[in-house]
Amino acid sequence: QVQFVESGGGSVQPGGSLTLSCATTGSTFSMNAMGWFRQAPGKQRELVASITRGGSTNYADSVKGRFTVSRDNTKNWVYLQMNSLKPEDTAVYYCYGDLTRRYWGQGIQVTVSS
Predict the structure, then answer these.
(1) Positions of the chain with pLDDT lower than 70, given as ranges
(2) CA 85/CA 104 separation, integer angstroms
């Protein structure tokens, strides 16, 4: 069974940095696209960043220049480096990976406040 597990979340002050990691187990095959969604209370889930198997990336306009997504194709891990964090970045972050279907992590809380 394929499972994704996020780590690295927590609380930081505005302007701070945080790195999220997503460990994938149970799959020998390289994922296609991987990335991160987030969902804040009362808001729809939104795509934060994605990365293809070849390394092409896409970012939500709200995080461009501040977040960096990367991946390890051998391990099927995906990461999200978050810099210059803002209160509006507060959300539960979910990693995902695409193979024959979309797999999801359980979600991890990121809170940005003074």
Answers:
(1) none
(2) 24
